[in-house]
Each structure stands twice: as structure tokens, then as C-alpha cells.
Design a protein that fits this description.
The protein has about 220 residues and is of the alpha/beta class. The chain has one domain: Flavodoxin domain (Rossmann fold). It has a five-stranded parallel sheet, sandwiched between helices. Helix 5 links the parallel strand 4 and strand 5. The longest helix is centred in the last third of the chain and has 27 residues. The N and C termini lie far apart (about 40 Å).
């Protein structure tokens, strides 16, 4: 059974700069395409499509089954998933606020005991590496521990076209090998974690499901 691996695009911007706009969409689409080639079932979750607006109210703050339909659907996807790809630009040396806002709507009980892969990008030379450092702590707190390999894409507009395909003048095989290292780790840990969750000897400690105060020490 193929692994279900949502790809979260953590940018809600649709403007310039950078030029061209929506560089992250190119990177996320590339991740989706390469996961499909590896027999996974990816789904692009674009923060631009999930603008919540208004007063922040997380999914777990609603009575069971009473959250807005969009939140319920995304909660179901997160819970079913075997792992996650988190794609983010860098804002002030940290992860995208749009990605943090989207993920903060859901408790760790939906993400926990699954792996994640950090993918960052930029229009400049650093590829979002400093955002990736902050993302490790954030994702570990959610319970979807990042694999050791990370992917950074500097000058993303010089690597991918609008569809997520490689531009004609780049070394596509070299980039595939670079992406493949992280994606292979994600698949390996995703398969291992799925077997463990499904096993008769699964002894997962409980994660909080109702209120963040459940994380508090005695």
C-alpha cells in the first residue's frame, strides 16, 4: 500500500517580489512529482488555499465533529498520513508564518509518530537554510520528527519551471540525487513507523487530544 505523504506549501504569498511569484509552488510541485515516481501518494496542501482569517481557533478547540468542514478535511488528511513534506521560505531567519499558522491549527496527536522532511527555498543564494534550523524544533514539538537530510533550493526560479519540472539548463540528475536522499529517508521512516503503528506490540504513549494543558508536567 503506497505511503500517503502530504506536501505542505508554507507560503500564502501571490505577489512580487520575489520574481517570479510563488517560487514555493515550483518546489512543492517538484516534491509531489518525485514522490509519485517513488510510488507514494502525495497531495499538495497549499497555505494559500487554507487561509482561515478571523480569530484563531484550532481544530482541537471545537467539539468533536463541529469544526469547519475545511479544517475537518485537513485534520483527516493529517491523521491518515504516513509522513509529511514541509516546504517553507525563510522569513527573518525563521520558517514561514503561513506554515506555522496552518500547522498550529492541529494538535500533536494527529502528527505524532510519523516522520517529516524539511524543504526550504529562496530567490537568493542561501536557500532558506536558517528557516530549516528553526523548523526542526517546531516539527519535533508536533511529534513528526524531521529526518536527518534536509533539502535547500537557492535561486529556485533557476532550477524549476512553473510546473515543478527542471529547467533545460540545469543538471537534473544531480538535483534528483539531492532530493532523493531526503525523500528516500522519509519513505524509509514512513514505512517503519507505519508497521510499528499497525503492530500488535504498539505501545505509543498517549499524546494530548483535547487541550494543550495536557502537555504540562505533573
Amino acid at each position: 500500500m503506497p505511503l500517503e505523504l502530504p506536501v505542505f506549501l508554507g507560503s500564502a504569498r501571490d505577489s512580487t517580489p520575489p520574481r517570479p511569484a510563488r517560487l514555493g509552488e515550483r518546489v512543492a510541485r517538484a516534491c509531489v512529482a518525485m514522490l509519485r515516481e517513488g510510488d507514494a501518494e502525495p497531495r499538495l496542501v497549499d497555505a494559500l488555499d487554507w487561509r482561515t482569517g478571523g480569530v484563531f481557533k484550532p481544530h482541537f478547540a471545537y467539539a468533536r465533529g463541529k469544526a469547519p468542514e475545511a479544517l475537518e478535511d485537513l485534520a483527516g488528511l493529517i491523521e491518515r498520513a504516513d509522513g509529511y513534506v514541509m516546504v517553507s521560505p525563510e522569513y527573518n531567519h525563521s520558517m514561514s508564518p503561513a506554515l506555522a499558522d496552518l500547522l498550529n491549527h492541529f494538535g500533536s496527536s494527529l502528527f505524532s509518530y510519523k516522520p517529516s522532511l524539511i524543504v526550504t527555498y529562496s530567490a537568493g543564494q542561501w536557500g532558506g537554510t536558517r528557516a530549516a534550523v528553526a523548523m526542526r524544533t517546531f516539527l519535533a514539538e508536533l511529534g513528526c520528527l524531521p529526518v536527518s537530510a534536509m533539502i535547500h533550493v537557492p535561486r529556485a526560479h533557476e532550477v524549476f519551471d512553473e510546473t515543478g519540472g527542471f529547467l533545460a539548463d540545469v543538471d537534473a540528475e544531480r538535483w534528483r540525487g539531492y532530493f532523493g536522499r531526503g525523500l528516500d529517508q522519509l519513505r524509509w521512516w514512513g514505512e517503519a513507523a507505519r508497521r510499528q503503528r499497525a503492530g500488535a506490540d504498539d505501545r505509543r504513549p498517549s499524546a494530548f487530544t483535547r487541550d494543550p494543558s495536557q502537555r504540562n508536567a505533573p
